[in-house]
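Students often ask why inverse folding is considered easier than folding. One informal answer: many sequences map to the same fold, so there is more than one right answer. In these notes we will look at a single instance of the problem. The structure comes first.
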């Protein structure tokens, strides 16, 4: 897993000041050995995580990255 990296980048518009610091919309960049292979968008809300958009390089299609991401979001919701 050391080769796999996920980086969250907050939307340029930021979050409303009345929300806790970790709430808001984020771009998630997924890299393997430094190469960007996928990108997703999530919204962290008071009672849920909304994960609607996910795109990946066609070269990685056989690894079902969309399914891997959904499983990861389910795991994240348990934390």
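Output (designed amino acids):
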């Amino acid at each position: 897993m050391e080769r796999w990296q996920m980086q969250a980048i907050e939307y340029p518009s930021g979050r409303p000041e009345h929300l806790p610091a970790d709430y808001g919309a984020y771009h998630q960049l997924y890299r393997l050995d430094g190469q960007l292979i996928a990108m997703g968008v999530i919204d962290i809300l008071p009672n849920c995580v909304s994960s609607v958009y996910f795109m990946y390089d066609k070269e990685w299609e056989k690894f079902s990255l969309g399914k891997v991401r959904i499983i990861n979001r389910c795991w994240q919701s348990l934390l």
